[in-house]
Amino acid sequence: MLRPLTLVIVLCILLAHDRVSAQYFNSPTAWKKYRNEIYFGGGVGNFLGDLGGRDKVGKDYSYADLELSLTRPSATFGYRYRLAKNFGWRTDFNYMRLWGKDALTQERFRHNRNLSFRTNIYEISTNLEFVLNISKGGNMYHIKNTRKRRFKSSNHYIYLFGGIGAFYFNPKAQFGNNWYALQPLSTEGQGLPNGPGKYYRFSISLPFGAGYRYSISREWTIGIEYNFRKTFTDYIDDVHGSYYDPATLYQQKGAVAVALADPSLGLIPNATAPNGDGSGAQRGDKQMDSYLSLEVKIGYMLKTKKRKKTRAKF
Q1: What DSSP character marks residue 177?
Q2: Which helix H or strand E contains 226, and what residues bound it?
Q3: How many CB atoms sit inside 10 A of residue 69's CB?
Q4: Count of structural domains, the chain
């Protein structure tokens, strides 16, 4: 149990902290003193692509096509610089794991296709932020009809952002008790005779989204952010075009490549057999993949150093 003197001291410290914080947030130039911020956070990520999804024919970029059971952890670390009162620039380093699995959908064609994958995403991006709600006018004691207005800065921030990023991915699938990288196996004949070219495991992303941030004190902030990435690759899940000739694939890459290229269940006869004109049956569509995250972030503000004034020698 706290002694009376200890309780008084604790209350005095809390009151002093509230008063200092209030003075800080009431300053019209407070943002200039704390331009630099480092932050970290974590949350969850998910994938929108060819695999899995709802129990109907998939629709590009539809949230209804998310397989929520495959939501996986994500993490972020970054640096933010306040360019102006309502604008900021930041650089993010992000990690997440993405999964897709046809067996989880009851849409008959995708369920029969029975493809699956997982991959780690390593991403770096740069973004511009626009703050929608950063300040409001008022007077110190909230007295109405006063001519003199006092700027009162808010410690609540709602913002939009957008930018550009680059990321690395390496889709893998399970065969037996082992996981195999799919790009070297050329599952759709990439790099093989009469097949498409090899795809790169690096690609560009366009992140954009919105967030809310709250300043707990001068130094610390906490918030939540939604980040959607449009990409320029359709191979995050290793699924893009048509089935490749299994005999040639076996000759070039072996039995594991054949098994992972076409693990279909056989519920739809000839679903993976060549078309009448000899072209390969459809394995995926050509819509680019995308991924998203929802994260909680904690930031620490670094106070801007004051420039030393130089006195004239004369």
Answers
A1: T
A2: strand 220-231
A3: 10
A4: 1
